[in-house]
Structure formats: C-alpha cells, structure tokens
Specification:
Helix content: 55-70%
Oligomer: single chain
Order of helices and strands: HHHHHEEHHH
Strand content: under 5%
Number of helices: 8
Structural class: mainly alpha
Radius of gyration: 21 Å
Distance between the termini: 54 Å
Number of domains: 1
C-alpha cells in the first residue's frame, strides 16, 4: 500500500494576495453600522500611507443608499483633503531628510531652452499640474500628496489641485454609482 498523501486543497483566502484580502476586509466595512466612519478614516489615511482607496467603501455604500451619494462624496472629499495635508507634510519631512542625507542641491540653475530657474523652482512651480491630474485619475492619492510635499509645491497650489481633483473624483465615482448602478461597477475601476 503506497502512501499517496495529497497536498491539502488551498482555500480561497490562501490564494488571495495580502492586498486583495485587505481590500475585501475594507470593502466589508461598507455594510457595517460604522461604514461612514470607516470611509472617512480610510479617506484620511489614503492620503498618506494606506494602500486601499476609499472608493472600496464609497461604491458599495452608494449602491446600498443611493440617495446619500452627495453626502458621501462631500464627506469623503473633505476627509481625503485632510489626509492629503498629512501626506504633504510627510513629503516635506522626507524631502528634508533626503536632501540633507544625500546632500542634494536643488538650487542648481537650469539655463536652457529659454528656461532660467533652479531645479527646485521648476519642480515646485509645475508639479501642481501633475498633482491636479493625478488627483482625478486613478492614481494613489498618497503618491500625489507625498510627492507634492517632497518637491515643495507651494501649499496653496497643492490645495487647489487637491480640492479640484478629489472633488471631481469623489463626485464622479459616487455619481456614476448613483445614476448607473451596479452595472457600472464592471467598467469603473476604483
């Protein structure tokens, strides 16, 4: 009699990556009595360190209560902006540490193609446009916020880009879920 021990069949949770398991846990919070608080918390920490976007909660919440879509979008936007400020602050700390540690000089002057500015000035003056685009597009907001702080985007420009971008993103996602419904979830990647 041969010993033909079979390998145990892998369960569904073993096949999922850590990210997917975390995403599903966050998404499951949308059906709890603390769904709104969870979405606000995820929106804040999404701007700095958390890998799961707040839309994992926003989408099922709007699908469950479509009449509250504006409320959810407004509150999510405000919480996300607060998280963006935290991310921006982290970026300034990272930049200060990296500049000091690596002895990087951002005051190198660029004088080519009609440009006459330092590297730091060029990054700070123009990065806010990228911040605006990435706040709307499905780019992790923490990358936008921390990056803006790292390259010293003026705070007023960062805030303007974040306010416009995050408002558009939250209202677009919530609005599509409200007016198109569950069928939109198939083609809307959040």
């Amino acid at each position: 009699m041969s010993d033909t021990s079979q390998a145990p069949i892998a369960t569904q949770s073993e096949k999922l990556s850590w990210y997917r398991r975390l995403y599903l846990r966050v998404e499951a919070l949308s059906s709890s009595k603390h769904a709104l608080a969870a979405m606000l918390g995820v929106s804040v920490i999404d701007g700095s360190v958390f890998p799961i976007p707040p839309f994992a909660l926003l989408v099922p919440m709007v699908l469950a209560q479509p009449r509250r879509w504006v409320r959810y979008a407004v509150l999510g936007t405000v919480a996300s902006l607060f998280g963006g400020l935290i991310g921006y602050w982290l970026g300034t700390l990272i930049a200060a540490g990296a500049v000091d540690f690596l002895n990087i000089d951002l005051n190198v002057r660029v004088q080519r193609f009609g440009v006459d500015a330092t590297v730091g000035e060029l990054l700070g003056q123009n990065f806010w446009v990228l911040s605006l685009l990435c706040s709307v597009l499905p780019t992790p907001f923490k990358v936008v916020a921390i990056g803006s702080g790292m390259v010293s985007v003026p705070l007023d420009r960062f805030l303007l880009a974040a306010i416009i971008g995050r408002t558009v993103r939250f209202f677009a996602v919530a609005g599509v879920m409200r007016f198109v419904g569950p069928t939109a979830r198939k083609w809307l990647r959040v």
